[in-house]
From TrEMBL:
Gene3D superfamilies: Spore Coat Polysaccharide Biosynthesis Protein SpsA, Chain A
Keywords carried by this UniProt record: Glycosyltransferase, Membrane, Transferase, Transmembrane, Transmembrane helix
PANTHER family, per database record: POLY-BETA-1,6-N-ACETYL-D-GLUCOSAMINE SYNTHASE
Name listed for the protein in its UniProt record: Glycosyltransferase family 2 protein
Signal peptide, first to last residue: none
Statement: the UniProt record of this protein carries the keyword Transmembrane helix: yes
Keyword Isomerase appears in the UniProt entry: no
InterPro entries hit by this protein: Nucleotide-diphossugar_trans (IPR029044)
Family from the record: Belongs to the glycosyltransferase 2 family.
Regions crossing the membrane: 21-44, 64-89, 348-372, 378-400, 420-442
Amino acid sequence: MKLHFHHPLPPRKEVRRPLNRSIYIPVFLKFWLSHSASFIWMIFSIYVSLPWLNDLSNVVSYPIALFIIAGISYIPGYLNAFLVISLIFDKQPPFKNENPSDTVSILIAARNEGEVISRTLSYISKQDYKGKLKVFVIDNASSDDTYKVAELAGTAFNLDVTVLRETRPGKFNALNSALESVTTQYVITLDADTILHRSAVRFLVARIKSAPLDICAVAGSILVRNSRGNLLARMQEWDYFLGIASIKRLQGLYQGTLVAQGAFSIYDTERIRQHGGWPDAIGEDIVLTWNLLKNGWKVYFEPLAVAFTDVPDTLPHFAKQRSRWARGMIEALKQTKPWQQPEAYLKYLTGINLIMPYLDIVYTLCWLPGLILSFFGYYWIVGLTTLLVLPLTLISYGFLYQYQKHVFKRLGLRIRKNKLGFFVFVCFYQMLMSPISTWGYIQEVFKLRRVWK
């Protein structure tokens, strides 16, 4: 297999003028207003925490105390405040045409997905999209009957399905082998265990065609399909519905969605080819997106383009997936430094990832032991200011819930009541995520074996 490399063309600029200038707030002003409010909140947090800081400094010294409290309170509080204010300003621009009819290719990399690939293809066949869909299923060194099931399903559902075989393991190999056969302007990547809402393709294509000409990719909205499973799955339902969605809306507002996730996103085919296809990385979608951003392109997020995926319902599987995500972030940082990004928004958004290992490590090695100590009456680490992060988190989730409620109503969906899952998500999710992410960082530092699934 050989990919064609082209010299990247400079992005074309398009100026979007507001219809009502009296209420229009430029992106740069939203950015700095959000930062100003966040800074004020952090100053307040520092003032409230001075007794806590002094008490802890008597135990571990002042510099170490400041290092710990900044990682578990000041910086998380600042970031949460920035998220809340930004979400208040966010407003998704309207579509120019909600019913595009371009022919679009869909790439599905599948490794031992014989049990689910037929279901995935059946949902593609039910799309309300007016254009033609050309589906490529890439059997990536499967040991089951993925290849045969995909062929039979394509015929049964009257889909234009081409089944390819890629013997070299690795999702990037599978996607790149299919990219050679793509002849359409736009290409969608879809995970083999991910099913689409009937309007998902239509809204995803409508967004990229409605966007300025320097937008080369749009990330769809991924939600949880198996949320009626155990508590772990029910907890993840809220992470996808509120947590991940809020981050993507924040990044989309500042024209820098940092991951056009492979699970469901659309790309300009020629832009992907210009940048050499999907890279050899465990987080191939993260690295690719950052490379596109570095070269002057932009990435959007479309909340109406909804797909549903099966999340891990066992702790080992969950840990494997999330440590892989953390490792992919480190890979992206190593290949594309935040200061290499062309715009201030992107420098900031990618720069946040530079401090994520610090926050996760401090949480894991300091906050969790501090929580245990608090049960024995030692409040050195878990203090009052730590609790100031929680109201901001709940406020941001409140904004997201109302927005997602509107999205669901438009799509004819209903938000399932999952109070226990929400409680566990708010109170205990970070206790799982930070240690797992820390393990992912260690995997990348010591170059441990990559695991796709």
